[in-house]
Structures are given as structure tokens and as C-alpha cells.
Design a protein that fits this description.
This is Efflux RND transporter periplasmic adaptor subunit. This protein is of the alpha+beta class. It contains three helices and 23 strands. It has four domains: 28-46 and 278-349, Beta Barrel (conserved putative lor/sdh protein from methanococcus maripaludis s2 fold); 52-58 and 204-273, Efflux pump adaptor protein, beta barrel domain (Elongation Factor Tu (Ef-tu), domain 3), CATH 2.40.30.170; 66-90 and 169-199, Beta Barrel (OB fold (Dihydrolipoamide Acetyltransferase, E2P)), CATH 2.40.50.100; 93-165. Helices cover 26% and strands 38% of the residues.
Amino acid sequence: MKLRTSLSMLALVVAAGLVQAQDAAAPDGPPPAPVQTALAERAQFAPVLWSPGGVVSREDSRVASELAGRVVQVAEVGTELKRGAVIARLDDSMLRLKEQDDVANVRRIEAQLDYARKQEQRYIELARQNTIAATQLDLTRSERQVLEQDLARAKVTLAQTRQQRDYAVVHAPFDGVVAERFVQAGEFVGVGAPVLRLVNTGSLEVSARAPVALAAQLKAGLPVSVRWDDRLVQARLRSVVPLGDQASRQLEVRVALPAGDWPIGAAVQVALPSAAPRAAVAVPRDALLLRKEGAFVVKVGADDRTQRISVQTGASRGELVEVQGEVMAGDRLVVRGGERLQVGQRVTVANRAVASVPGVARGER
């Protein structure tokens, strides 16, 4: 009985020792998590005014007819056309007949002119022999000169007729899509009447209105942000139309859009600088964690442990966002892998953190 009790006590002591040994071998908290980091930095920001605008095409034309006539063919709405493609045809049957008549007239005058030149040469020989009066030679030469002028005029008339026939075929002035038809086959159009609307969907920009007071801040080439629904893209100001409307006190700006699936007519907003730029602490957009309680960044200390810092966001410029809080230029911030980190957790940095812009001064606020 005593032997059984002694064995039980020994088993308990051994088990307790194993538990203590396991506890001593257990790591302090969760294992290090792999992350990628970037540096906070100083950057120039300007307060912005979000101005409404719309996506427009740089080439949007009501293609007109240069000839009056009956329409026999017109491109369908939605048809994609290349520059020079046929978009409409007019009835040119009368012009074809006139062209044939003009060709016949040219040939008739050419025949008369050929006879007149030969006649002139004969009269020149006769004049040398003094068998005809000089006035007869002058008359023959005059008739030849008149026929030469008639031939020149007939050729011009023929060229005009052929040009009119060319006008009977309306060509696309640029690559585009037929957005609207103003005539149907069988209808009559006059000179200068629009046939259809052609829009180049590959050359787009934003047309926006800005207060005249911002004119000093707006220059061609200025980087701006364009927001469409939940998309935010970076673009550049292409031009500023320096003509303000007296009623609205606003002027037009044009923003060149990057390539993308922008629908023409889409309502967008453009962030235009409303004051001179200022220096501020900026962090990469990927460093921000947005929660219901606010925005945060995860800072990695010298001991590779994390610290969660609450920040207030401000203006943005490209991939940089202005922040206010306990963040200094040069701080290492997690940009990948920070969603599930615990406060104080040790991390393994998978990259060497660098600033987005050279010349970051460490320790500046």
C-alpha cells in the first residue's frame, strides 16, 4: 500500500515537472509574423476642393454632309469606325451623268484644239510664202488660244463635278463610334446638315468647373485626383480655359484621363488645389487601416514589435496620404500583413523599408 502511494506521488511530481518545462519552453506571445514595411515621410500637400465634372471625348463631332441630296446609306448607331471609313452615302446618279457630259465636253474641245493647232501651222507656212494675209494667221492663232482657255475651263468643270461626287460619300474624320443618327435612308439632307454624331471613345478627358478664385493655383500639368464612384485615380490637368463665366464666377478645366473603362458622360469629381502647398507627414495609402472607430497605422519599433497608432487623414497625393498623429517621418509602418497583427506582436520584416520620395528626414513631425 505504501509502495503504491509512493509511486503515485512520484508520477505527480514528474507530470508537474513536464508541465513546468513546457511552460518555460513556450514563446512569449504569438510567433513573429512576416510583414512588409515602408517609411513615413515629409511631403507637400495642398488643401483641395472637390469640383464636379463629367467624362467627355476630345473628339465628338456632328459629321455633316457637304452636298445636298437623298441619303441612300448611313451607318448604324453603335458601329465602330476607323478614320476614313464610309459613314453615309448620298444619291449621286445625276452627278454621274453630269460627269459623263463634262468628259465629253473636254474631249470635244481637245479635238477642236488639235484641229486649230494644225490649222495654225499650215497658215504659218502660207504666211511665209506670202500667200495669205497676216490677219488670217492672227485670226487662226486667236481661235487656238480661245480653245485652250475653253479646254482649261472644261477641265475645271469636270474636276468640280468629280469633287461633288466625292462629297456624296461621307467619311469618318477620326476613329470613333456612331453615337446618334440624325437622318435615315431615303431622307433628303441639305448642305451642312448633320448626318450623325461620331465620338472617339479612345481619347477621353474630364471637363470640370472651378471657381475663378482658384485660377492662380491651376496650371497645366498639375497632378490632380479624379474620383468616380469608389475609384480614385491620379491624372493631370491638361488645360485651364482662362475665361470665367460672369454669372457663375467659374472657369472650365480639362483633365487628361489615364486609359481605362471610362463611360462618356460619367459624373466624376476632381480634387483641385485651393491654396498653396504645405509640408506634412505622409504615409503610403496601404499603411492605413480603416475601422469603424477611425483610421490607424501599425508602427514597427526598433525591437521589431508592433504599435497601433490612431491617426487623422488629410489630403492625398498619388499613393501618399497626409496624416496627423504620433507618426514621424522615418517611422517604419506596416503596408502588408498588418490586418491581423496584435499590439506588441513581434514581426519579421520581409523587405527593407524605403521612402516613396528621396530625402526623408528622420524624426520630423
